[in-house]
Amino acid sequence: MKKVITDQGQGDEPTSTTPLKSKGKGRGKRKNKKRAKEILPLWLELPEEIWPNILQRLEIVEILLTAQKVCTTWRRACKDPSVWRVINMPIGSQYFNFDKRHTYEEMCRHAVDHSQGELVDISLAFYATNKLLAYITERSGKLKRLSISWNYSKLSLVQVVQKLSLLAELSLTEIVITREGIEALGSYCP
Fold first, then answer.
1. What residues are paired with 11 via a beta bridge?
2. 108 and 40 co-located in one domain
3. 2 and 70 housed in the same domain
4. What is the CATH number of the domain that holds 106?
5. DSSP element (H, E) containing 130
6. What strands lie across the sheet with 145-151, from one edge to the other?
7. 8 Å CB contact between 107 and 64
8. Using a CB cutoff of 8 Å and minimum separation of 24, what contacts does 92-95 make?
């Protein structure tokens, strides 16, 4: 059931996918347009404070590429920094493509910017670079968890961890790191 806004006010009326029938050629069209000026789905009437919770269930790539383009309500909700507190851009995403490394780095930067300093958890993959990690570190003073996987470039993780005073968890999977690098990281991570 959809909410129909008419000239008389609001009311719940069932809607159909078939167009309204007119009473002959040219008659009744104006009346039908007035009666059903705007048909709104009921989900648009949800309180604005629950939209971030709903959007957080999507992958960041989905929010950046599709969700914020659905309607103005979703676009406004996508601007809420609480949606971007956790950034997870997994390799298994349907949008992921190893040939587009710079695209994912750019999307990650946009997501970090949308967080407006509220980022607390981020998971990165092969597209993580020293430049991207520096960007995240400068803009994410509240970061508590950093996860990097499938990355074979030499990352300056010690410098990153030194700057993230609230970091409580560092997860490194399938990355290149020396024994000395692990020991140095251990001295900065609780």
1. 4
2. no
3. no
4. 3.80.10
5. helix 130-139
6. 86-88, 121-124, 145-151, 169-175
7. yes
8. 93/59, 93/61, 95/59, 95/61, 95/62, 95/65
Pair 73, 15 in one domain: no
Specify burial of residue 10 (Cβ count, 10 A radius: 0-12, 13-18, 19+).
Answer: exposed
190 residues of the chain, pLDDT tens digit each:
444 443 344 444 334 344 444 455 555 555 555 545 567 677 777 887 888 888 888 888 888 888 888 888 888 888 889 899 999 886 655 555 555 555 888 889 999 999 999 999 999 988 888 999 999 999 999 999 999 987 777 888 988 999 999 999 999 988 888 888 888 888 876 6
Exposure b/e, 23-46, CB count within 10 A at least 16 = b: eeeeeeeeeeeeebeeeeeeeeee
Cβ-count burial of 180 within 10 angstroms (0-12 exposed, 13-18 middle, 19+ buried)?
exposed
- Report residue 151 as tokens: 């990355």
Predicted pLDDT of residue 48: 77
Domain that holds residue 60: 47-188
pTM for this structure? Answer: 0.70
Q: Which helix (H) or strand (E) holds 35?
A: helix 29-35
Domain count, the chain: 2
Q: Give yes or no: residues 135 and 163 share one domain.
A: yes
Tokens linked to 5: 């806004």
